[in-house]
Amino acid sequence: MYFHNEVSADSWKKMLTLAVEVKKQAPWGWLFDSDLVCIQHPQTDEYYYCSVMGAAGEHYAIALYEGNEGLYGLYQTLQGYKWESPTQMLAYQKCLMLEFDNAGLVEKTDKQQLKALGFSFRGKDAYPVVKKHDPFLFPWNATQQDIDFFIKALEVLIPFFDTLKGRTKDLPVCDEVSEGVFAMPGFGYNKAKESYNRQERVTAKASYKWPVKYILDGAMKVKSRLLPVKDASLFFLATILPTKIAENKGERPWFPINFMLFDATSGVMLSMQMYSYQDALKKGIEFFNNFFESQKNIPATICYSESKSLQFLEPAAAVYGFETAMIELPGFIDEFLMMVEMMGL
């Protein structure tokens, strides 16, 4: 159920009325998901990057990506790593999303709630659904604060989208288009890195690093550094498993992160461990420590293929002294993950 108990009926009515207006406007007819508009939250001053989805005729949505972390997640999606499923890419997002679903994807209780609010929808991609996305967590209910901001944003964005028809470059920066809300058209990812402030331009960083802070045991460091270095090369991959885990009823489910080590030459998988996001940030070092102790050595080099894996690999390299090297995605990784996807693991 996507209707959060704490959101007032009046707020939902306003949100749904604006959703109907967005669907009728259909801005995906002239905007692509990489055509970003930056707006500023009137209370927190955080920057949100609006992406309009639906140009391909598959998924119609308006998403507000929060800050540098949200922009980083969107960039990962736009890059589109070929081995990642839609569920895996979804798990990196930090945004508020208004999407339009088919009736079969909407729960009965939500349909009843829509009816109670005086709304009725029929047809393909007709039902407006608002969800909150956070990295490595299952999409969840939007709060009152989320809905209030989305309403404020859509009141600015809907008329603003109309001004972008037929214009694909050299768009002027918009000043304060609504009290406390600033907007800037940013066609393409690089232009979207620049945001507009009340007094001056500010630049948002193009990258974001997850707060990996491994908890190190003193004995762990001493013991590992006594192990000999072997002239060998391994391949490391940290990836989302496309399945949700719910530990307790009513709690928000999460997506597990899988740490994997392969022999870089033969493609044989040597070790695998599943973590929650929070455990991966703190305890991921145990994965490397346990493997090195089982092998009685430390490899000279561990390779990787993309930045998400490097963020978990780099802190371990600083502790154990092995080298890291970026390489093209090995064919055996592609085959392995396709098998995982087919098995629904």
Structural class, from helix and strand content? Answer: alpha+beta
The ordered string of helix (H) and strand (E) elements is: HEEEHHEHEHEEHEEHEEEHHEHEH
Strand order of the largest sheet: 5-4-3-2-1-7-6
Content of β-strand? 15-25%
DSSP strand count? 14
Average pLDDT level: 80
Polypeptide structure, described:
The chain is an alpha+beta fold and 345 residues long. It has eleven helices and 14 strands. The strands form three sheets. The protein has a seven-stranded antiparallel sheet with strand order 5-4-3-2-1-7-6. Strands 12-11-10-13-14 form a five-stranded mixed sheet. It has a two-stranded antiparallel ribbon with strand order 8-9. β11 and β12 form a beta hairpin. The radius of gyration is 23 Å and the shape is elongated.
Looking at this protein, list some descriptive labels.
5-stranded mixed β-sheet, single chain, 35% helix, alpha+beta, 7-stranded antiparallel β-sheet
Write the layout of secondary structure elements.
Layout (H helix, E strand, L loop, with lengths): L8 H17 L9 E6 L6 E7 L7 E6 H13 L6 H5 L4 E7 L6 H9 L10 E7 L10 H20 L12 E3 L2 E7 L1 H4 L1 E3 L4 E3 L14 H8 L3 E12 L16 E7 L5 E7 L1 H7 L1 H11 L2 E7 L2 H14 L2 E4 L4 H13 L2
Parallel strand pairs: 10-13, 13-14
Antiparallel strand pairs: 1-2, 1-7, 2-3, 3-4, 4-5, 6-7, 8-9, 10-11, 11-12
